[in-house]
Amino acid sequence: MPAAALKPKPLPVQSTAKRPVLLELPCAPVEKRPLPPGRPREWYITHNRRLKAMRLAIALLDSGVYHPGQARDDTIRGAAELIGVHPPSDTTCHMVRAFMRYHR
After folding, report:
1. Cβ-Cβ contacts under 8 Å for 82 (sequence gap 6 or more)
2. How do residues 23-62 score in pLDDT, each as one tens digit?
3. Residue 49 · residue 26 · CB < 8 Å
4. CA separation (Å) from 26 to 29, 41, 78, 96?
5. What is the dihedral angle through the alpha carbons of 67, 68, 74, 76, rounded to the nearest 10 degrees?
6. Rounded to 10 degrees, what is the CA torsion of 57, 61, 16, 7?
């Protein structure tokens, strides 16, 4: 038997951060700040829709839906109900699939 097969595997390194990072616990939400004033209304609508789509995409990935083809509108709306947000529109569902497609 080769000597390399007898060596124990090294433990996986979790982080190179100076402070310990708890990986098992879910992250706390970031403190909300007011949006910048003076933008057109369309900007705020798009911005909030993107945030919602990102939250839904993360929830779907956490639940095991990894491909945009698996994320039908009813699946996305079910994830929205699970995480406690209003049911998304068809446009937001399309944006969720786009995030899953282009951010892999």
Report:
1. 59, 63
2. 444 556 678 888 889 999 999 999 999 999 999 998 888 8
3. no
4. 9, 33, 21, 22
5. 80
6. -160
Q: Global pTM? A: 0.67
Q: In whole angstroms, what separates CA 77 from the centre of its chain?
A: 15
Exposure letters 12-50 (e unless 16+ CB within 10 A, then b): eeeeeeeeeeeeeeeeeeeeeeeeeeeeeeeeeeeeeee
E strands, 32-76, are: none
**Residue partners of 9: CB distance under 8 A and separation at least 6:** none
For residue 7, the tally of other CB atoms under 10 A from its CB is: 8
